[in-house]
Amino acid sequence: MNTASHTPLKGSHTGRILVIATHTFTQLARMKVFYFLAIFAVIAIASNFFDLPQHAGPEALGANVLRSIKSWSLGAMTLFSVVLSIVATALLLPKDVEDRTLYTILAKPVPRLDYLIGKLLGVLMLVFVSLALMDVLMTVVLQIRTSMVLEQQEAMATAMGWTQDAIASMRVETLANGPNGSLQGAVFAVFLRASIMASLALLISTFSSSTLFTTIVSFLIYFIGHFQADARDVYLHAGQAGEGGVARIASLLVSLVLPDFQLFNVIDAVIEGQALPLLMLGKLTLVGLYYAFFFTIASWFIFADKEF
Amino acid sequence: MNYWRKPWILALALLAFGAVRLPFEAGLSRDLRAAGLFPAPMEISTRERIDQTSSAVALGGLRTLVATFLNLRAYGFFTEKRWADVADTFETIVDLAPRTRYYWETGSWHLAYNASSYCMNDSKLPPLRRREAWRASILSGRAFLERGIRNNPDDWSLHANLGFLLSDSNKFPAFQDPDKTFAAAAEAYRRSAQTGKALDYVQRARFYSLARVAGRESEALALGRKLYAESGKNRTPTLLILLLVLEARENPSMDVAGRAVEWFKTPEKAYDALSGHWQRTRERFPVYGVAGAIESLENSLSVPKEKSILAKPLPPPPNPDDWFRK
Question: pTM for the full model?
Answer without folding.
Answer: 0.81
